[in-house]
Amino acid sequence: MKVASWNVNSLKVRLPQLLQWLQAEDPDVVGLQETKLLDDNFPVDEIQAAGYHVDFAGQKTYNGVAVLSRGNGPETTDIVTDLPGLDDPQRRVLAVTIGDLRFVDFYVPNGSEVGSDKYDYKLGWLEKCTAYIEDQLQQHERFIVGGDFNIAPEDEDVHDPAGWTGQVLFSGPERQAFQRLLKLGLTDSFRLFEQEPATFSWWDYRMGAFRRNRGLRIDHILVSDALKDRCVGARVDREPRTWERPSDHAPVVAQFTD
DNA sequence: ATGGTAGCTGGGCTA
After folding, report:
1. With pLDDT > 90 as the criterion, what percentage of chain A qualifies?
2. Cα(A258)–Cα(A245) distance, integer angstroms
3. Active-site residue A121, yes or no?
4. pLDDT (0 to 100) of residue A258
5. Which chain B nucleotides are covered by protein, judged by CB under 7 A?
6. pLDDT tens across A50-100, in order?
7. CA–C1' gap, A13 and B10, in angstroms
8. Is pLDDT above 80 for A10?
9. How far is the CA of A145 from the C1' of B8 (A)?
């Protein structure tokens, strides 16, 4: 089983790239973020034609999440699009059950700037999502939460940790919230394996950041203990970030034995 | 401290 997450930054613009990537990579489950589409405009037909069932929760202009699951399997069930206790119009959550796998797709708020209202919203969101994940881990042995967490967990996940200290995406409270999530019984699949130094998943469009590899690793696939033991590989696929008119994020992938 | 780019939208917000 191969599981992936990709912040596509507009599925309308990136649909051809997604379809090309699905064909090449052949993942079983894919969480998407920043689809930026109303549900009425979601490209269901194109994704079904590529061989995937798809669930989605979108809104106008911003945010929006979707989960693709390869169509051979049973339909998805127990679809959840809101964090319990958070009355939020922003579409950032999509949890689905695929066979015996519970998969949660997150688009964690960016936070804008430390100390801002958006930063407070991010920390509050992380509290609510942690409570939800704790509940889900108790109910599902085979559990994965993937997505754009907008948090670089460690120094090695940042091109310039000294310069980023205290900045949004790398501030202490955000990283502590990420550690609290892991403490519930999750493992960062990427760090189960030896990786190239300076591997990132997001590069700002500005200032030639990708060309200079000035990036952060903020997209993650976190797995329960049962799946940690079955995880046989994890990586960032930089290639789509080299394509013409790319998303600012690269897809991240984790592979498991059956 | 600011600006650089991209997407959505139709001026400004978000990232």
Report:
1. 98
2. 36
3. no
4. 84
5. 3-9, 12, 14-15
6. 999 999 999 999 999 999 999 866 689 999 999 999 999 999 999 999 999
7. 18
8. yes
9. 28
- Torsion, Cα A9 A254 A211 A240, to 10 degrees, reads -50
Sign of the four-CA dihedral A154, A85, A11, A1: positive
Q: Which residue is nearest to nucleotide B8 (CA to C1')?
A: A61
Reduce the secondary structure of chain A to three states and give it as a string. Answer: CEEEEEECCCHHHHHHHHHHHHHHHCCCEEEEECCCCCHHHCCHHHHHHCCEEEEEECCCCCCCEEEEEECCCCCCEEEECCCCCCCCCCCCEEEEEECCEEEEEEECCCCCCCCCHHHHHHHHHHHHHHHHHHHHHHHCCCEEEEEECCCCCCHHHECCHHHHCCCCCCCHHHHHHHHHHHHCCEEEHHHHCCCCCCCCCEECCHHHCCCCCCEECCEEEEEEHHHHCCEEEEEECCHHHHCCCCCCECCEEEEECC
| Burial category of A45 from C-beta neighbours within 10 Å (exposed 0-12, middle 13-18, buried 19 and up) | exposed
| Alpha-carbon span A187 to A191, nearest angstrom | 8
Whole-structure pTM value: 0.98
pLDDT score of A224 more than 90: yes
Q: What tens digit of pLDDT does each residue of A17-38 get?
A: 999 999 999 999 999 999 999 9
Active site residue A119: no
